């Protein structure tokens, strides 16, 4: 679906979006419980004969025994719920895009400002981190970039200034014929001509039907690349077979069920982003 491109291409600007699928509140709660369990084991494990083991080395029976000891002690329980088994990582992965900084310099810079979290105003820290991919049209596009409302009704551009952000004009090169002939194209979402802000979409499907719907109306300014080598993901958890990258991740996202308003029924969250 996407061209195989090395991150060492001369002059290329590569950015990444780290994606997780699932309930972020549940994930953070689960990890809080586990970190509390780690602290309990670190301070009390030796009292119960586990001084020569780490928490990860305990078998299920040992963990159950320690859990019961904790829960039977009122003074410990007041510290909160614990778990002694590391939470299962949420599925997800990494999308890497090569930006067309030569053909669409302003659009690319606008995107970089939010990816690198260098742009703030009085009200919002404008970053894609912790925002959702909130719209999914099967075999067509997936959309995100609304850091103010997270539902497609907000966001703003990084031009012309911090204090006075306004939509910016389409760059002609991004409207060229053939820009949407393949999957994995990164483009700006808009509310009509010359209304670019922070929202973007990624094409999932390909073919004449979608090319006609997008071409000339939306600025295409980047494309998905398949990274060579192992780029560590900022997932906050251990690696998992549920994590896939590039076009395989797009295909995974495309299979998520949606409601009647084209919203994914599972949260799709950008948990990290930046320049490679």
Notes on the protein architecture:
With 276 residues, the chain is α+β, with helices and mostly antiparallel strands. The chain is 23% helix and 19% strand. It has 6 helices and 11 strands. The chain has helices at residues 24-44, 60-71, 74-77, 105-115, 208-214, 246-254; strands spanning 13-21, 92-99, 119-120, 125-126, 131-132, 135-137, 141-144, 185-188, 200-203, 220-225, 268-275. Strands 5-11-1-2-10-8-9-7-6 form a 9-stranded antiparallel β-sheet. The protein has a two-stranded antiparallel sheet with strand order 3-4. Strand 6 (135-137) and strand 7 (141-144) form a beta hairpin. The chain is elongated and about 70 Å long. The two termini are 21 Å apart. Mean pLDDT is 89; it is low at 1-8 and 234-239. It catalyses: [protein]-peptidylproline (omega=180) = [protein]-peptidylproline (omega=0). This is Peptidyl-prolyl cis-trans isomerase. Belongs to the cyclophilin-type PPIase family. Keywords: Isomerase, Rotamase. One of its GO terms (molecular function) is cyclosporin A binding.
Salient structural properties:
single chain; alpha+beta; 9-stranded antiparallel beta sheet; two-stranded antiparallel sheet; rotamase
Short description:
The protein is α+β, with helices and mostly antiparallel strands and 276 residues long. The protein has helices spanning 24-44, 60-71, 74-77, 105-115, 208-214, 246-254; strands at 13-21, 92-99, 119-120, 125-126, 131-132, 135-137, 141-144, 185-188, 200-203, 220-225, 268-275. The strands form two sheets. The protein has a nine-stranded antiparallel beta sheet.
């Amino acid at each position: 679906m996407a061209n195989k491109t090395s991150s060492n291409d001369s002059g290329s600007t590569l950015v990444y979006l780290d994606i997780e699928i699932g309930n972020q509140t549940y994930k953070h709660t689960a990890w809080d419980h586990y970190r509390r369990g780690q602290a309990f084991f670190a301070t009390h494990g030796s009292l119960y004969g586990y001084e020569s083991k780490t928490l990860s080395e305990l078998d299920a029976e040992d963990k159950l025994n320690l859990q019961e000891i904790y829960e039977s002690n009122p003074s410990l329980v007041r510290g909160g719920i614990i778990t002694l088994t590391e939470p299962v990582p949420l599925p997800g992965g990494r999308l890497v895009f090569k930006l067309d900084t030569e053909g669409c310099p302003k659009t690319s810079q606008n995107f970089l400002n939010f990816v690198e979290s260098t742009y703030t105003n009085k009200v919002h820290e404008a970053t894609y981190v912790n925002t959702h991919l909130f719209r999914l049209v099967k075999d067509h596009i997936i959309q995100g970039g609304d850091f103010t409302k997270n539902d497609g009704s907000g966001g703003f551009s990084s031009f012309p200034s911090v204090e006075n952000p306004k939509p910016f004009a389409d760059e002609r090169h991004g409207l060229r014929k053939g820009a949407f002939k393949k999957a994995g194209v990164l483009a700006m979402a808009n509310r009509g001509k010359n209304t670019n802000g922070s929202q973007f979409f990624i094409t999932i499907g390909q073919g004449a039907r979608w090319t006609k719907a997008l071409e000339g109306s939306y600025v295409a300014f980047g494309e998905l690349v398949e990274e060579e080598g192992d780029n560590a993901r900022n997932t906050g958890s251990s690696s998992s077979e549920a994590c896939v990258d590039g076009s395989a991740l797009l295909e995974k996202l495309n299979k998520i069920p949606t409601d009647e308003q084209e919203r994914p029924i599972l949260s799709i969250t950008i948990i990290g982003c930046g320049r490679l």
